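Hi all, long-time lurker, first post. I run a small reading group and we've been trying to get comfortable going from sequence to structure in the token notation. Rather than ask abstract questions, I figured I'd post a concrete chain and ask someone more experienced to write out its structure so we can walk through it together at our next meeting. Sequence below, copied exactly:
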Amino acid sequence: MEYNFREIEKKWQKRWVEEKTYQVTEDDSKQKFYVLNMFPYPSGAGLHVGHPLGYIASDIYARYKRLQGFNVLNPMGYDAYGLPAEQYAIQTGQHPAITTVNNINRYREQLDKIGFSFDWNREIRTCDPEYYHWTQWVFQKMFNSYYCNDEQEARPIEELEKAFAIYGNEGLNAACSEDISFTAEEWNAKSEKEKQEILMNYRIAYLGETMVNWCAELGTVLANDEVVDGVSERGGFPVIQKKMRQWCLRVSAYAQRLLDGLDTIEWTDSLKETQRNWIGRSEGAEVQFKVKDSDLEFTIFTTRADTMFGVTFMVLAPESELVAQLTTPEQKAEVDAYLDRTKKRTERERIADRSVTGVFSGSYAINPFTGEAVPVWISDYVLAGYGTGAIMAVPAHDSRDYAFAKHFGLEIRPLVEGCDVSEESFDAKEGIVCNSPRLDVTPYCDLSLNGLTIKEAIETTKKYVKEHNLGRVKVNYRLRDAIFSRQRYWGEPFPVYYKDGMPYIIDEASLPLELPEVAKFLPTETGEPPLGHATKWAWDTVNKCVVENEKIDHVTVFPLELNTMPGFAGSSAYYLRYMDPHNHQALVDPKIDQYWKNVDLYVGGTEHATGHLIYSRFWNKFLYDMGVSVMEEPFQKLVNQGMIQGRSNFVYRIKDTNTFVSLNLKDQYEVTPIHVDVNIVSNDILDLEAFKAWRPEYKTAEFILEDGKYVCGWAVEKMSKSMFNVVNPDMIVEKYGADTLRMYEMFLGPVEQSKPWDTNGIDGVHRFIRKFWSLFYSRTDEYLVTDEPATKEELKSLHKLIKKVTGDIEQFSYNTSISAFMICVNELFNLKCSKKEILEQLVITLAPFAPHVCEELWDVLGHETSVCDAQWPAYNEEYLKEDTINYTISFNGKARFNMEFAADEASDAIQAAVLADERSQKWIDGKTPKKIIVVPKKIVNVVI
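-- Answer (accepted) --
Happy to help. Here is the structure in token form:
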């Protein structure tokens, strides 16, 4: 019978559905194993060959664990909200829900062709009201909670209300946006609105003023990775930094727990370190600086209070409220111009850019340790979100302060004996302190650090700051609260209405609050988000339902929130919903959660290290506090798959125009490189008419050509729909089959490494599967399998494979497994082995990698159940033992020839045989050997 992969794959994909092969339920008699992939956003481009890489890797592991007897949960769904569907709706008028469903159907068709063992009965879609019901429910819980620093957990906000009425907030140790103080009398005298404003300061989900990337043309806030060179990646529209009132999640309250949890999970050291750096724990002191000739004072945070004597200037973040307060009239015009320039740069760009810019505010601050008046500058190398948004600059011992001081001619004062700061700053981690205070000035305070070691000086200064009320010792974190608002239509609605300008939560029993219909998907003419177009978007507090806007009376009917939730809202607890996706009463049944607990293996890309993987851990820790999740960490083991790269093309748009300049002329202009669809480029030459027709914004594009042609740039990089360099897996499946695609993607290299897509080797993998098939069927379709007992050589070949593949799968070294399969099949082919005893075990071992062909051959071997329900074979070391050993025979340490001996041959017998061999006589040359050394199973050395 010929290996007809098309028929075989369709046959088994159909049978798996009919027999519900991959549906799983809780089973207390089996140990659980939960495998999860980071679920995809269903784009219009469909899957490319890079997408299945992680899915195939996890699917192999899921099938392997099932064969080992585990009850395996391996679900799949869709992260269905996203800007592309909304932008398509704006361009075409087609509702994002229609686009999304069409895209999902396309993804499902492609995924099914590859033969994954997903339990589709558990499919979730984040845009389904049945799903986002529970996203809204968690938001409600966060709104109605605060974080108690003493208990290190989320607690009901009602506790604060009761405490405030009796004690005020004296002695309260809770995470908050700003430190405030009030008595019980003051609290009880406040209006309802004033009380709500105070509670907002403590809520885990709260409204706050934050700096955002605002794109006016798109009418929305953009994430950092959606902004390139100060313009939106989609459309090239200007983006500025703007302070807006946004929903936020108090992620920062969980910073220490997020750090501590990293020690309990099996993630790579590099990814853990990335999260540690992002969370950014630092111990230091907050110190008060008074403004010269003013009643104003401000706080700075420093990890090195011992360097206070070296402060020669201060720097404010451009977004700091202090900028307006400290800018003098003489400096206002210069400061305003600088602020206008910096608001076009994202924080990420400011961190990466080492160029020096800044402006003097006109004010001076008094150093509390020296009494000196030091100038206060403004610069974008200081960020508002870290510490207090103001820093004391010690240029002798900080590289960025040093560069700033050199650029603007400010004093650089060294504080470590013998250090040279003539060319660069000195990293003052060790040494003896000097100039603290300087010996040639009258001391301003009674603290001297001179002669102390750096370590002694740090502790002495922190103690002094605390004892003299100059500030307080504090642990600080770089981690910011998450901005949780988007000015978009296609997202989860907030279950929030507004009364007297303050947010209130709709009843839990009224969830889900479903996304309304709108006439337009753009912002309104008055600048409101797209939900401002909804005519039925008001909350009736009496009837507990959505009603028409015209019924708003601000007595019983109130306006609903117009923003929607961001993309990460739906992906932060989806692993819990997979456990119990059809439960209408709870996010997850406690008994079911107790069975599955958390994800044993999570597979996804490293690009989510500081986004999704931070937010989902925070979200899960909150649910753990609420008693919903039984495990504090959601993902026990994480494997990051590398990228399959593609060859991208670029066009170059001249800034602030719709004109594109050819590659070799671009250096004459200020340009923004933009990815272009590789399908409208041939040999790096752009099809101009196809480009104009590609996207609406390029319809009026103009070009500056070279030799009458537009030459595109190129790069090897991530294969991605956003880079328009995709290769469709359907083409590979059609030509070679899904089993070949699965094995080839694993054969390209280690799972965690990035590698370019190259079809040159795919024929070899396809030939391997055909050779595997030929162990069962001859070229004349004769069935070859027999019940004859296996030979020693056949058993050795098989068990060598089983040992290798078992170890490789545990280490995700699938590429070396596939090499081992090829070697084994070649050996068995050469041995003309068609023994059922061997082939059955071989089929089971290959099944996780090539499930279709293995199901077919398992069936051919006479089994009535799926190969998925077989038992993973155990290798037998006895079969791996060698009968004979090849010894190297050396004379005075030089190898001369080899001899075969029985594996259990005694040393004396080996020595005698070596001396008796006629080849030895040549090297002994009639002399008597001084000694003979036998290294078991390796070498014999005759010393003459």
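A couple of things your group might point at:
Residues 665 and 918 are 79 Å apart (CA to CA).
The mean pLDDT is 93.
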